[in-house]
């Protein structure tokens, strides 16, 4: 690898730009609210694109195209499930959560919101939800670090161990310095880069393989089943893939974007922008994997790296088909996807440790700048643990993501959704929902019952636990009046 390598220069420029944005955000960070939620100042475009970019991690450009390349269109059910889930999350949760967090102690984090919404003075709800965040997000962060390491490994010929640290360093740098504003501003840049890469790459692959007719003929020749949405699937398999959509209701890094919007009125416009971006990205990513089948069938001599690890399909196509400078920009899109999600996750873990443990239990009177610096220290701590988990080179990106996604979707999804829709929900109901959801995911995953994705039983049982336990008690008058006031404010804004 020579220093004049255009891809390397592109990467360095890109990373330097992201870190520069981090330093710009550093100057706007005066207190913990700024560091954790950007002072609730995000407009609709930044809210939309940062929600999208924080959601679509390295799996969008590695895990999903790899799955389609291996199995054909039958893997695209996951994309359909995600689109439906994301839309329902914007529709039912986004605006309501923005208003409810403001009415419930101006909550900065999910555990903070749960504590205020359900008047939990014991701190139990806060501790359990913060622990769930730390456990599943550290696994999620590890998936981002694996994706970054794979990128550096295959682009620059580094060893996996070196690539692991190189890939994580830049993200840690700007999250550490700039906090939420840095993460949201860089997400907007990264979302733009990702959509550019995912629209351009399939078009160029299509041209390289001779247009639609030739490409489709080559894919059919390889295996006619590639076109069959139902190939090798079962009813449980399709339900499992569609079930990914349920995860949206409980992802703290996406919900944080809703909480940070400048007003509930920005949400409708943000929803339209975010869904358009998401649909274009998912169609592009499926096309990359699908057209890649035709390209590598026609060019078996360069198919080695993809045969060895199918999650490299986008990386190899970018390197083979584009001028090295353009390839550098396209490969930066993977880095963008990894960095945007990893930075959000590091920040949510940091805010859980700072706001929900340090400030609540250790230093109630801590100054704002002390809390910001504790938050920065926690970013480093979580990153190091995630790097240790990621140090096993056998890890697959999609496998790590699916476990963490299920954990959040089942533990927090029903609690968040029901808490913004039903005033009869109680603290014990919320506790039961989190515990039943999280435990179901861990147990179901361990025994892999019926081959069903663990988020589905976790979500259903969590929701039932909330309903029945809440029905056994009743919410206080304060809880009901705050809910009604927030609900009125939400309706008035529409």
Automatic annotation (TrEMBL):
User: Record keywords: Cytoplasm included?
Assistant: no
Q: Which reaction does it catalyse?
A: L-proline(in) + Na(+)(in) = L-proline(out) + Na(+)(out)
> Pfam families of this UniProt entry?
SSF
Q: Write the record's keywords in alphabetical order, separated by commas.
A: Amino-acid transport, Cell inner membrane, Cell membrane, Ion transport, Membrane, Sodium, Sodium transport, Symport, Transmembrane, Transmembrane helix, Transport
What InterPro entries does this protein map onto? Answer: Na/Glc_symporter_sf, Na/Pro_symporter, Na/solute_symporter, Na/solute_symporter_CS, Sodium:Solute_Symporter
Q: Which Gene3D superfamilies match?
A: Sodium/glucose cotransporter
GO cellular component terms? plasma membrane
PROSITE patterns per the UniProt record, alphabetical: NA_SOLUT_SYMP_1, NA_SOLUT_SYMP_3
Q: Name one GO molecular function term.
A: L-proline transmembrane transporter activity
- Cell location: Cell inner membrane; Cell membrane
* Signal sequence range: none
* One GO term (biological process): proline transport
At the top level, the lineage of the source is Bacteria
Q: How does it sit in the membrane?
A: Multi-pass membrane protein
What job does this protein perform? Catalyzes the sodium-dependent uptake of extracellular L-proline.
Q: Which family does it belong to?
A: Belongs to the sodium:solute symporter (SSF) (TC 2.A.21) family.
**What protein name applies here?**
Sodium/proline symporter
Q: Which organism is it from?
A: Pseudomonas tructae
């Amino acid at each position: 690898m020579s220093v004049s390598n255009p891809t390397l220069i592109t990467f360095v420029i890109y990373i330097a730009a992201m870190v520069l944005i981090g330093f710009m955000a550093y100057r706007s960070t005066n207190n913990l609210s700024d560091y954790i939620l950007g002072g609730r100042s995000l407009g609709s475009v930044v809210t939309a694109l940062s929600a999208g970019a924080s959601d679509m991690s390295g799996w969008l450009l590695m895990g999903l195209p790899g799955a389609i390349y291996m199995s054909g269109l039958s893997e695209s059910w996951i994309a359909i499930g995600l689109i439906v889930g994301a839309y329902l999350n914007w529709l039912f949760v986004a605006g309501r959560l923005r208003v409810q967090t403001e009415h419930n102690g101006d909550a900065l984090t999910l555990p903070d919101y749960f504590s205020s919404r359900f008047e939990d003075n014991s701190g139990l709800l806060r501790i359990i939800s913060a622990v769930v965040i730390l456990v599943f997000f550290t696994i999620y962060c590890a998936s981002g670090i694996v994706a970054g390491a794979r990128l550096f490994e295959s682009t620059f010929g580094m060893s996996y161990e070196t690539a692991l640290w190189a890939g994580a360093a830049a993200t840690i740098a700007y999250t550490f310095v700039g906090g939420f504003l840095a993460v949201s501003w860089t997400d907007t840049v990264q979302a733009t880069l990702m959509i550019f890469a995912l629209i351009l790459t399939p078009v160029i692959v299509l041209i390289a393989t001779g247009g639609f007719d030739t490409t489709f003929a080559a894919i059919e020749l390889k295996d006619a089943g590639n076109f069959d949405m139902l190939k090798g699937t079962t009813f449980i398999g399709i339900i499992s893939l569609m079930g990914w959509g349920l995860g949206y209701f409980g992802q703290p890094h996406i919900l944080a974007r809703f909480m940070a919007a400048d007003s509930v009125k920005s949400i409708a416009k943000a929803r339209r922008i975010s869904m358009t971006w998401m649909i274009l990205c998912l169609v592009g990513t499926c096309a990359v994997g699908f057209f890649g089948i035709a390209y590598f069938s026609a060019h078996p001599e360069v198919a080695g790296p993809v045969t060895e690890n199918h999650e490299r399909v986008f990386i190899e196509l970018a390197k083979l088909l584009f001028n090295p400078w353009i390839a550098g920009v396209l490969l930066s899109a993977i880095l963008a996807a990894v960095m945007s999600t990893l930075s959000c996750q590091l920040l949510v873990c940091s805010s859980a440790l700072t706001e929900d443990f340090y400030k609540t239990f250790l230093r109630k009177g801590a100054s704002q700048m002390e809390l910001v610096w504790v938050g920065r220290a926690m970013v480093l701590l979580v990153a190091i643990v995630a790097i240790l988990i990621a140090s096993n080179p056998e890890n697959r990106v999609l496998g790590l993501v699916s476990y963490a996604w299920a954990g959040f979707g089942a533990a927090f999804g029903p609690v968040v959704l029901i808490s913004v829709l039903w005033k009869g929900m109680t603290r014990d109901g919320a506790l039961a929902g989190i515990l039943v959801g999280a435990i179901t995911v861990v147990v179901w995953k361990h025994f892999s019952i019926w081959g069903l994705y663990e988020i589905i039983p976790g979500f259903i049982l969590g929701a039932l636990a909330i309903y029945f336990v809440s029905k056994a008690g009743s919410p206080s008058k304060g809880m009901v009046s705050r809910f009604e006031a927030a609900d009125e404010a939400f309706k008035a804004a529409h």
